[in-house]
Structures are given as structure tokens and as C-alpha cells.
Amino acid sequence: MIAMWKPYCWKFSILCLSIVALVASAKNDGNPANEVVDCINKNRTTNKLPKLYNSPGLGCMALQYISECMGNCSTNNTLSCQPPEVDITEVYAPNCGVELPTVGTISGHLVGCQWKHLNPEQAFSKVLISDKKRLSLLHSKDHTEVGVGFSRAHHGPFFWCILFSSGKTNSTFVLEGGRGIKQRNGCFSGKDLPCSSGRKLPFPSDLKPVVFSMLLHLIVGI
Ligand SMILES: *[C@@H]1O[C@H](CO)[C@@H](O)[C@H](O)[C@H]1NC(C)=O
Ligand SMILES: *[C@@H]1O[C@H](CO)[C@@H](O)[C@H](O)[C@H]1NC(C)=O
Ligand SMILES: *[C@@H]1O[C@H](CO)[C@@H](O)[C@H](O)[C@H]1NC(C)=O
Ligand SMILES: *[C@@H]1O[C@H](CO)[C@@H](O)[C@H](O)[C@H]1NC(C)=O
């Protein structure tokens, strides 16, 4: 009786473990750009400021902004990157599929880079809101909406960008057809899309198929 029961017990434990691993990896699969928006809004609300609307159009433009900064992260994690302002309408909006007449005023931006991988909370406090000047920009009463982009240079540093806007939240940065143009690398806030570009972002989601096939094997095996 016991001898028969034992292998099942063992298999059952592995089954449980794999389910836990699968759930955990699914959780890590989230969008780090959206997590930064959560940090932004948490910090604003604890300081009695209104939450900012998480705009996908603006988020995509923040990701586009980063693409111009890829070569400019120094070894000491300082980023010198000043793309021309006209790029907002001439490059970012068309590349994202943001309807041009709906491009609103950018009321502030914050960018940063880091050679080491940081989680969104660390990126928020250590890279993006790293001093008082940046904190006061975060707390500006002008902002009504926000967009965050996150990407990594090939085998290189990680880049973060926050764009703030003072535009009307439901009529600015409108994406063509509601979806805009799909971005190939990195991720942006406002949508529930995970980070694209398998090769660039080292996320545990890579493990998911492995765990899943293990699970399947076990279920079929039992
Ligand atoms: C970081 O590096 C840049 C360029 O390499 C340099 O100009 C800057 O002074 C450095 N900053 C610090 C804090 O070391
Ligand atoms: C990146 O750095 C180079 C060299 O310092 C500079 O010429 C260029 O304008 C920078 N790029 C941006 C987008 O600021
Ligand atoms: C959030 O806001 C407080 C001010 O209430 C500030 O001191 C703190 O540094 C902010 N948090 C982060 C992670 O920047
Ligand atoms: C935008 O929001 C306002 C107030 O929430 C609403 O009255 C208006 O109809 C909305 N416009 C669109 C295009 O959704």
C-alpha cells in the first residue's frame, strides 16, 4: 500500500512545485513600465497629488525617446541624451502610430540608464527619481498623464524614460486604430503587453515553456 502510494506522492509534490513556479513566472512576466507608473502614482498620492493617467500613446513615445539614447550611457551610469524636440512629432508619433493632431504638450521628462539590471522599484528610486530636482518634477501639478518606456541596448545597459504631459487625458496621444504600431524592442506603459524582444530582456518568462512542458509530462505521466 505504502510502496504504491509513494511515487504518486513524489510526483504530486513536483506537480505542486511546478504549478507554483508557473504562477511565479507568470507574475514576473508583468510589464516593468507599468510597475514604474504604479511607483509614480503611489508617490504622488502619498504626497496628496492626483494620480496620473497611464497613456499608452505617451508610453510608446517614451520608448521611442530611449531609442535615441542607446549609445549614450557612460560606464558610471550617467546618461547624456538630448534628442531634438521636433522628434516628438516628426519621429516618435509616426513610429508609434500616434495621431499627429492629438499630440499633447510634454510637461516634463526623466531619463536614466543603468548597466546592472534593476527591478522597477529600484529603477524608480535609484535611477529616475535620484535627486530633489527630479522629485519636484515628479510632483509637478502641471502633469495630468504619464507614459513610461523601458528597453535594453544589445548586451548593454538598461534604459528608462518617463514622459509627462499636461494634455486632456482621453483626447491626447491617441493611437491609430486604438493599437498604434507594434514596437519591436522593450516595453511601454498603458498596455498590458509584456516586454517584446526575447533576446534583449533577461526575464524569467523564458523558463515558462520548460516548466509548462514539465507539468504536461507529469500530468500525462500520472
Ligand atoms: C561619469 O562619466 C561622465 C563621462 O564619462 C563624466 O563626464 C562624469 O563626470 C562622470 N560622473 C561621475 C559622477 O563620475
Ligand atoms: C549622444 O552622445 C553624443 C556624443 O556625446 C552626442 O553627440 C549625441 O548628441 C548624443 N545623442 C543624443 C540623442 O543626445
Ligand atoms: C516619494 O516621495 C517622498 C516624499 O514624500 C520622497 O521623500 C521619496 O523619496 C519618494 N520616493 C521615492 C522612491 O523616490
Ligand atoms: C473625455 O472625458 C470627458 C470627461 O471624463 C467626457 O465628458 C468626454 O466625453 C470624453 N471624451 C472622449 C472622446 O471620450
Describe, in plain words, how this protein is organized in 3D.
The protein is of the alpha+beta class. The protein has helices at about 1-30, 30-45, 55-65, 85-95, 120-130, 130-140, 210-220, and strands spanning about 55, 105-115, 145-150, 160-165, 185-190. The longest helix has 27 residues, at about 1-30. The protein is globular, with a radius of gyration of 21 Å. Residues about 20-30 and about 200-205 have low confidence and may be disordered. Bound molecules: 2-acetamido-2-deoxy-beta-D-glucopyranose (NAG) (4 copies). One 2-acetamido-2-deoxy-beta-D-glucopyranose (NAG) binds near residues 43, 46, 124, 125 and 129. InterPro entries: CAP_dom, CAP_sf.
Brief sketch in words of this structure:
With 222 residues, the protein is of the alpha+beta class.
